[in-house]
Amino acid sequence: MTLSNTPWKNPIGETNHYRVYKDKYPVTEGHLLFIPKEDHVVYLDKCFTGAYEQGQMFVKEGVCDGFNIGMNMGEHAGQTVMYPHVHLILRREGDLGRYENGTPYDPTGGVRNVIPGKGNYKK
Questions:
Q1: Residue 78: inside a domain, yes or no?
Q2: Which of 11, 68, 84, 88 has the most CB within a 10 Å radius?
């Protein structure tokens, strides 16, 4: 697959190395995709840098409390568009939901939670 035949349309930002899109199926409000203009490690590295810098700016501005950056590479990792892309998922306190007593679910382990039971390694 090449960038020209991917489903992403109407970028909200662009550099010489990547385009930024709102995720069509956002995990949280503000979920962004950083898509390299070429399927090359240098361009992909710029996507990670851009996602990190954007996430830091959002935290500084109070848009979110933290963020996850990640990729799904390959069908068994959950990738559905077979062109490399980087997700910036904004995180906010309590965004995992709450227990019946009102206590927020524990986000410890972050992306480790993609495998059930493997998230909180501190328990």
A1: yes
A2: 88
Rounded to whole angstroms, the Cα distance separating 73 from 76 reads 8
- How many Å apart are CA 64 and CA 107, to the nearest integer? 15
Taking residues 30-35, report their average pLDDT. Answer: 98
For 68-84, give one letter per residue: b (16+ CB within 10 A) or e. bbebeeeeeeeeeeebb
Tell if the pTM clears 0.85, that is, is over it.
Answer: yes
CB 74 within 8 A of CB 20: no
3-state secondary structure of 86: strand
- Domain span at 28: 3-107
Enumerate the H helices of 1-117 as residue ranges. 41-60
Helix or strand or coil: residue 96? coil
Residue 101, beta-bridge partner list: none
Q: Give how far the C-alpha of residue 74 lies from the chain's centroid of Cα atoms, to the nearest Å.
A: 16
Is the backbone of residue 60 left (phi > 0), alpha (psi -120 to 50) or beta? alpha
